[in-house]
Specification:
two-stranded antiparallel ribbon, EF_Hand_1_Ca_BS, mainly alpha, two-stranded antiparallel sheet, Recoverin, domain 1, EF_hand_dom, cadherin binding, calcium ion binding, metal-binding
């Protein structure tokens, strides 16, 4: 990766060059800013080779749902992914379009039942209708905000049936004390939303070994029963 951003071969990377490169990770500017702050230890706006490798490692952590912190640097994670055709890591592993959807069929049936009970209009639920369901999970508001941001894949402020299933899946992950990822793993992008290499908000192409530990979800009633569905 280093030769791509250190064209002068000076052994250092300027903030402007690094920003362009790191944007290809598909992570949000907020997350990338945090990564830069942690890597640029002396605040000079320049990364040496070692600091640049720290930044890459933190990108990989964020793409795999780990906290962006120095304590995550020693955790085993796959290499970072960047949507750049010159990157040798771009298409290693399974293409995102061929990944099985992480939302299992039996769970999708439960999520669809909640979706229909919330009176969708033209197959869509507004944020106002989804909000009570999310809040009833009793998860922190910042986590719920990230769940909404990740599940509203087409950024239209509404959730369709598949996007709602993603939101429910992430809520249950959080209820099982699993971290909500900073960007949507490729395996979680609904097949109906997948495009070759460029799904908004889901650019990191994670290997197909995405966690599949959600065999036994808590009863869907945790959310549904507490929601006044007659609103």
């Amino acid at each position: 990766f280093l030769p791509q951003v250190d064209s002068a071969n000076a052994g250092r990377v300027l903030a402007s060059d690094a920003a362009v490169f790191l944007k290809k990770s598909g992570l949000t500017d907020l997350v990338l800013g945090k990564i830069w702050d942690l890597a640029d230890t002396d605040g000079k706006g320049i990364l040496n080779k070692q600091e640049f490798f720290v930044a890459l490692r933190l990108v990989a952590c964020a793409q795999n749902g780990l906290d962006v912190s120095l304590s995550s640097l020693n955790l085993p994670v796959p290499p970072p992914r960047f949507t750049d055709t010159s990157s040798p890591l771009l298409l290693s592993g399974t293409p995102s379009s061929d990944l099985p959807w992480a939302v299992k069929l039996e769970d999708k049936v439960k999520y669809d039942a909640i979706f229909d009970s919330l009176n969708p209009v033209n197959g869509l639920l507004s944020g106002d209708k989804v909000k009570p369901v999310l809040l009833n999970s009793k998860l922190p508001v910042d986590i719920l905000g990230r769940v909404w941001e990740l599940s509203d894949i087409d950024r239209d402020g509404m959730l369709d049936r598949d996007e709602f299933a993603v939101a429910m899946f992430l809520v249950y992950c959080a209820l099982e004390k699993e971290p909500v990822p900073m960007s949507l793993p490729a395996a979680l992008v609904p097949p109906s939303k997948r495009k070759p290499l460029s799904v908004p908000g889901a650019m990191p192409l994670l290997p197909s070994s995405t966690k599949e530990s959600h065999q036994s979800l808590p009863p869907v009633g945790i959310l549904a029963a507490k929601t006044p569905l007659t609103q």
